[in-house]
Amino acid sequence: MLVASVGATGQGKFIAKNAYISFYSSTPMEDILGESNEAVTILNTETGEIAFQALMTTFHFKRALMEEHFNENYMESTKFPKAKFNGKIEGYNSSVLSGPVIDIKVAGILMVHGVEKTITISAKLGLEDGKLVGISKFKVTPEDYGIKIPSLVRDKIGKEMEIIVKANYLPFGN
Amino acid sequence: MKIKYAIILVVIVIAVGAGIGLKMFFKPHANINRLKAEYKLDASSLISEFEQDENSATTKYSEKVLEINGELKSKTKMQNGIDLLILEDEMQGISCQLDSSWASANQPIIQSLEIGRSITIKGICKGYLMEIKVSPAIILN
User: Fold this and answer.
1) B25 touches chain A (CB under 8 A)
2) What is the predicted pLDDT for the residue at A174?
3) Predicted local distance difference test score (pLDDT) of residue A2
4) Complex prediction ipTM
5) Residue A146 to residue A136: CA distance in whole angstroms
6) Distance from CA of B5 to the nearest CA of A (A)
7) Contact: A64, B62; criterion CB under 8 Å
């Protein structure tokens, strides 16, 4: 399914199977940081298309209670187990794959909590120590994705959550 | 006098409530060592269950403790120091991130593992994303 979403043939693809994704929000009480090292991303080197998926249950928090609330109250992980992004690098040129890290923009559709939104995110892509790396930092507003936060808690946490993504890509298939 | 008892009662209720609240707030993460496996299965049959019907397999196994037996295909240490074992198939098999405290206490066991041998792991199934994700996991034998 993931493979299919970036195009058919097995040629010209890079994959990162244990990509990093984090979700951060600051509150007066304490900072909330959820991290996963189990996201999967595929980059189609011919078209510049990028697919990224993460399982909500793989996010790990400092406190077990945060993890429970994240999965059960906010993300409803049983109903919506995955967050997905399918996008395309704007003005893609394959030379980015063999040069130093540069700033890029990726436009696509982000699906979180079963809700799809069109977004454009800033990212960096290129070689670092001879390896293809992709990094991105962007913000999302939970309400845009139908995530309900009780008003008692709502005022205490930032309106936007910061998402950080890091992937070390490897050639995939032939 | 009645007021005094009422105040004491209120204080006790608040103290107990706060105690329960704090206990919940500081509740530790599940210790995979102590959890009992709900399902014991072969890696290949678990993979085919997910391939046939991802949704129902996810409902059945996600967040459940599984004991899985399969062939060790790869063993790596990730950048963040976590040991990663892959069973059955390198691209679309079962990916097990080992519990970090278990792994640091059992490095000799991890180091002695040979690729190609059959191993049994116990871990929490997180669902399917190209491969079946199990974490945290420990090695049983």
Assistant:
1) yes
2) 47
3) 59
4) 0.82
5) 23
6) 32
7) no
Any long-range contacts for B52-57 (C-beta under 8 Å, 24+ apart)? B54/B128, B57/B128
> In this predicted structure, what is the pLDDT of residue A8?
47
Q: Across the interface, which of B24, B80, B126 has its CB nearest the CB of A58? A: B126
SS3 A174: coil
Residue A4 is predicted with a pLDDT of 52
Residue B47 and residue B26 share a domain? no
Candidates B78, B101, B102, B94; CA nearest to B129 is B94
Structural domains for chain A: 13-172 (2.40.128.110)
Low-confidence ranges of chain A (pLDDT < 50): 8, 174
B120 lies in the same domain as B89: yes
CA distance B140 to B67: 9
**Rounded-to-integer distance, Cα B64 and Cα B50, Å:** 14
CB contact under 8 A, B78 and A18: yes
Burial of A97 by CB count in 10 Å (0-12 exposed, 13-18 middle, 19+ buried)? middle
In terms of domains, do B68 and B24 share one? no
pLDDT interval class at B134 (50, 70, 90): very high
The chain B residue lying nearest A65, using CA atoms, is: B25
Task: Looking at the structure, tell me whether residues B3 and B69 fall in a common domain.
Answer: no
Same domain, B24 and B59: no
On average, the pLDDT of chain B sits at: 92
The arithmetic mean of pLDDT across residues B131-140, rounded, is 95
Whose tokens are 């600051």? That residue is: A26
Q: Supply the DSSP symbol for B55.
A: H
pLDDT given for residue A153 in this prediction: 76
**Domain housing B135:** 39-139
Q: Mark yes or no for CB contact B129/A57 under 8 Å.
A: no
What the block records as the tokens of A101 is 């890290």
Instruction: Tell me the pTM.
Output: 0.87
At B96-113, the pLDDT tens digits run: 999 999 999 999 999 999
- Best of A58, A68, A75, A85 to substitute, by most chain B Cβ atoms within 10 angstroms, is A58
Angstrom distance (rounded) from CA A120 to CA A103? 13
